[in-house]
Amino acid sequence: MSREPRVRMYRTALVTGASSGIGRGLSAWLARRGVKVFGAARRMEELEALARELQGQGEIVPVRMDVANAQETREAIRAIDEQCGGLELVVANAAVAPETPGDALDWSALEQILDVNVRGAAATLSAVADRMVSRGAGHLVGMSSLSDVRGMPHNGAYSASKAFLSTFLEGLRVDLAPRGVKVTTIRPGFVKTPGTEGNHFKMPFLLELDDAVDRIGRALLRGVSEHSFPWQAATAARLFQVIPNGLWDRAARGFDPERE
Question: Structural domain boundaries of the chain?
Fold first, then answer.
């Protein structure tokens, strides 16, 4: 029987949005492989439950953090970096996805997406980037989405937030690679999480959470610049990106009747 190798290149990691879904799964995946994981989220009780669940299997340090407050997020991550002797992996995973239909825009939903998915992610990734450069080592990871290629119906703000994240990560990668700092963009399709349970539309190529987390974890260990999955959805996303606007508009409007 094959044994999972322990992660040797990471001593410490910080993962935002660690109380549920991909963030929770990835935190556990890393911790079980020998990484000291600072799991950050607003729901401290969920983080503490995860830490108890992993006792004897790995170390999770619960950290109360609301990435919607960008300045507090930066300060908290920098303090953790000092406390642990240097974060080696930082994963900007926290995100929200309220619907933002163009014909019924709700500013509070738009503001939440901007605060969490854009400002929060940027604050997380930038918090210790300068220190990683000084150390000549580190790994920054952003949890983007295949929806970054187009403005998706009813979810244009979410798509835009992920487009920002993917482009921001690409710029960081170009700048930081020569300085010894890795940057990885993760672009999953639909994954079965608490966040997608309420979706009332078809989710093609839906992945189980454990499968998605394992794919992400292994991509991080390989140090790839980008990992888009599953391949079927990634192929469709590439096609969506290049088709003319008129054709995309008609196709996207056709998604709406599929809603249940």
Answer: 12-258
3-class DSSP assignment, residue 39? strand
Angle, helices 21-31/209-222, rounded to nearest 10 degrees: 60
Tokens of 148: 């970054």
- Residue 92's φ and ψ, nearest 5 degrees, are -85, 95
Whether a cis peptide bond, with omega within 30° of 0, leads into 230 is yes
Q: What is the largest CA-CA distance in the chain?
A: 56
Assign domain 12-258 to its CATH architecture: 3-Layer(aba) Sandwich (3.40)
pLDDT at 189: 86
- pTM for this prediction: 0.91
Q: Enter the tokens of residue 211.
A: 């499968």
- How large is the average pLDDT for residues 50-56? 94
Q: In the numeric block, which tokens belong to residue 151?
A: 């403005």
The CA radius of gyration of the chain, in Å to the nearest whole number, is 18
Instruction: Specify whether the CB–CB gap between 203 and 196 falls below 8 A.
Output: yes
Best CA proximity match to 97, nearest among 110, 80, 86: 110
Find the Cα–Cα–Cα–Cα dihedral 240, 185, 159, 252, rounded to 10°: 20
Instruction: Give how far Cα 221 sits from Cα of 3, 12, 60, Å.
Output: 16, 14, 19
Confidence band of 2 (pLDDT split at 50, 70, 90): very low
Unique residue bearing structure tokens 């088709």: 243
Q: What is the DSSP string of 61-94?
A: EEEE--TTSHHHHHHHHHHHHHHTT--SEEEE--
pLDDT at site 254: 73
User: Which of the residues are catalytic?
Assistant: 158
CA distance 185 to 32: 23
